[in-house]
Amino acid sequence: MTAATDVLDKLVQRLGETGVLQDPQEMERYVSDWAGDRLGMPLAVVRPDSTTAVAEVVALCGEHGMRLSPQGGHTGLVGGALPEKGGQEIVLSLERMNEIRAIDPVNFTMTVDAGCILETVKQAAAEHDCDFPLSLGAQGSCQIGGNIATNAGGLNVLRYGMMRQLVLGLEVVLPDGRIWNNLKSLHKDNRGYALQQLLLGSEGTLGIVTGAVLKLVPLPDQSRTALLGLPSVEAVIALYGLARRGCSDLLTAFELIPRRCIELAMEATPTLGDPLDSAYPWYVLMEVAATGPVDLGAMLEQLLEDGMERELVLDGALASSEAQAGQLWQFRESMLEGQRLRGEHLRTDIAVPISAIPAFVERASQRVQHVSPECEIIAYGHVGDGNLHFNILPPVDMAEAEKYRHLHELEALLFEVLDEFNGSISAEHGIGRSKQSAYLARLSPAERELVEGIKTLFDPAGVMNAGRLLPPR
Amino acid sequence: MTAATDVLDKLVQRLGETGVLQDPQEMERYVSDWAGDRLGMPLAVVRPDSTTAVAEVVALCGEHGMRLSPQGGHTGLVGGALPEKGGQEIVLSLERMNEIRAIDPVNFTMTVDAGCILETVKQAAAEHDCDFPLSLGAQGSCQIGGNIATNAGGLNVLRYGMMRQLVLGLEVVLPDGRIWNNLKSLHKDNRGYALQQLLLGSEGTLGIVTGAVLKLVPLPDQSRTALLGLPSVEAVIALYGLARRGCSDLLTAFELIPRRCIELAMEATPTLGDPLDSAYPWYVLMEVAATGPVDLGAMLEQLLEDGMERELVLDGALASSEAQAGQLWQFRESMLEGQRLRGEHLRTDIAVPISAIPAFVERASQRVQHVSPECEIIAYGHVGDGNLHFNILPPVDMAEAEKYRHLHELEALLFEVLDEFNGSISAEHGIGRSKQSAYLARLSPAERELVEGIKTLFDPAGVMNAGRLLPPR
């Protein structure tokens, strides 16, 4: 423990008392994540306020072989931001690095500290008639650095891509404490290996992102939302093809929602009435957005007409005001709350080819119901990304320990079905801790060697966010 | 030489006589590139026709320490596909692997052999009402594998991104001969480090791409083209901001063209008349494309009107037919021919922030003209990508040896100015051989270590496309 005490003393010397939290009560808000999960307490939470300070902390911890865990808004869903058990890890929070460094609306770029909150970034862009188009439920608390480390996705990936497509430059403190300044504001740059791409999605295991150049888009000045009722998942997929073409790729969202989710939303928010005149087995919540002279209302009406003519769409509501659109989106938000109210359940974040969604939903539902007829299946998600949240709600009266074991089994079963479809066990949430064994089990020997080799290249001592993504050394 | 003879015998045994070319005359068409450059002859050109055969060739060459150079359509512009001097390298051509393996228009994906020609891929997509939106001058001969290895860009990057954004899955033969099958047709997949991104842009130095899953988009069913005359580069940049907003991000091209290029085009293609009533210092060639009910004509007219009102646009021609649009695009193609007719000249492919284009063009022009008042500067390019081809034509009567030395000096000067703007010496062409020293000189020690470390991780013996991107061992 003397080494640790020595390091902590030096950290306090460098960062001051407010920069190094050691009181368990003060550290409390850094130890659990969005879902309320927790593992252990850290040795300390350090809060550097500059890139240089981050570099000094990393170098100092490296000299003493201390393990470091970089932390953003801890809104992740795979346990990646939870301090490890045993209390030997130092959490490095980026929260004090929260300045917008520059905005260049002519270049459609913005340079920010990694600790900036996504919502703040979006607001700052909007002041220049631009948008940073990443859109997540957690955007009021997640940080850009975490979005980068996890290659965050969200609702608008269909049109704008994941974080990987939205970052032009990075500033990174490497695990040896050197600063890698790659803060370029270039839309095109084709020099050598894609080092920067490695950091995107590396989950804090290859270095600490301290700053980034983000790509902006024109802020849409109009958008239209529709909620449609459909007879089958097949109809949803066929409508998606029509919508891509009929809406000139101006689609910003195309969400699949099963009837059960509409019910859960109404349970969670009793003021919500049934959105359409009748109940339908499947719904699509879609949005188109544009700048300039495009008649989005006519575009959606035409699509609705075409969809009805082909018997893909049975009924639909087109929001005629922002308030109405907000109400339609309320179903998407309240259905999450409705699931949460049902207590412990299996949340997944999987991907299959778009064309395979109907067959996958059918096959996976059959397999799950065969093993566990009393469970409820809720499959919703981002159709255009082939990304489903195929969630399973256990019976409310099942004992907690039994629930945990049972859901774990069902997850394994679901992943087996996913393998038959050449799908992904993590479409956007990442690996962290909770998907690690399923991830490793699916790597070929060659992939495992390359992945381990990259970790060793960047972080030979294995001190950076150890145990996330890959097993600890 | 016995080792080489032994390997060649085994290659012939495996691939047959037609699979292993050793006759200098037969090898002739594999030794030079698009620009007509050449260095040396290879030991042999091998032409495997399957992924397994590629893997066997790579393993066999690896066992004997033979250097291998993968080759696509050899249309690169940085000397990456040229066999090295000394005749000890084996060229591995992918040309016999040219099957479209599968098209899934519902998933908007296509699985292809690496040797497929880009134009063939685009045609196959069009048969399913889809487009593979990479668009290059060389698309009639470049191959998908080469597009991947060089992370190709082109005309439509503004809307659809570079190759990096258009590839969902890869099949790769690693330098030790193992096949890495990552042929997933998933639009979202967030599992672990971005290994696949490393291969994109690796210029054949980390492995041989044998197959790929490509992302398709709906084939636009309408497009409109306009050629506009503008007073200054500043006006071009301001118009670009207006166009992004006024055209609802349906822009597929926004090309900057100086007056001199219009003249060069008319010199090369005498049937082309002056495109507008008067001559203007700068032109913009722009295109918008859409599917579905959008009035693109009205959209462009509105933009033209707004641009004129703000005195950004002085005059403009809107093509009212496909033939007229083709004629406007003819200027873009003929101006390249016009440059070629001027003989040896400096071609560059650089990037700066879009907002810095006017200041960069001014500063770089001043510096070049100060050193070399007799040279002609031609700066054109993809405005939305901040990507300029800032080319320099020496006086026609300058001696060849003098030209070469002089242009080399001017390139170094230009790159110095670029450094002041935090720009890129290679926006899309890559590094290959011709940009290697300028690339290496700009790497920080940490970057150099990481880049070399990645090369060593994938290719410890340094046999794969040795000497390109990085110096040979």
TrEMBL record, chains A, B:
GO BP, one annotated term: respiratory electron transport chain
Superkingdom of the source species: Bacteria
Domain FAD-binding PCMH-type: 38-219
Molecular function GO terms recorded: catalytic activity; FAD binding
Entry-linked InterPro entries: FAD-bd_oxidored_4_C, FAD-bd_PCMH, FAD-bd_PCMH-like_sf, FAD-bd_PCMH_sub2, FAD-linked_Oxase-like_C, FAD-oxidored/transferase_4, Oxid_FAD_bind_N, Vanillyl_alc_oxidase_C-sub2
Assigned keywords, A-Z: FAD, Flavoprotein
Pfam families per UniProt: FAD-oxidase_C, FAD_binding_4
Keyword Plastid among UniProt keywords: no
Family named by the database record: Belongs to the FAD-binding oxidoreductase/transferase type 4 family.
Name of this protein: FAD-binding oxidoreductase
Species, as recorded: Billgrantia montanilacus
